[in-house]
Input
Amino acid sequence: MLILGGTAESRKLALMLDGAGYAPVTSLAGVTSRPGITRGETRIGGFGGAEGLARYLAAERFSSLVDATHPFAVVISHHAAAAAQICGLPLVRLERPAWTPEAGDRWSGVPDIAAAAAAIPAGANILLTIGRKEVRPFLNRSDISGIARMIEPMDTEVTGNWRILLERPPFHVEKELCLMRDHAITHLVTKNSGGEETRAKLVAARMKGIEVIMVARPAKPQVPTLGDPSAVLAFLDEVVSA
Output
């Protein structure tokens, strides 16, 4: 089984597959310097597009493909769908359910990063949790300030009204409350990644009445999609026994 990984769910699936007697290989893009420990074999780096992925799948004689990448990793999901079709292999996507607003939440949904940057009012002090690759539209606005939290450091310096905070999940409500209080956060900007490891920021924002600008998930290819590693394992068991 080839797992396109990089998420907590992909690591759980690899552990389950290994325990069930399969030989999981997890492929990571290599953008994180200290990825989580994954059971089974791990490879690092890209494939060279859908055709390259298809060649790798055929050469290594994989029986199925699992797309367990981040919900916002659009390109690799398209490559996975195309490669699975080329090779005639079963493909299943392991994708955690999206967050949904609860009573007391103050969410403003936006379709993309550009819309999120435009939606922030002047004078806002933001907690920005969208990773490091797309923060520039926010940092370029001199009329807002805040903290940009990410796992890996940026390649360029930031202006004086911004602070970069390097931290890894999981996060906890108490710490998120302290962060928002100590830095007078007025807005939280985040992607709808889902999952429990980073949900605490939403709980803290709700408790403090902070507005959340939520970036919607992008469209991905229509393939069988399951939200739990155990459900994916059951799916793969059926594929193997078919």
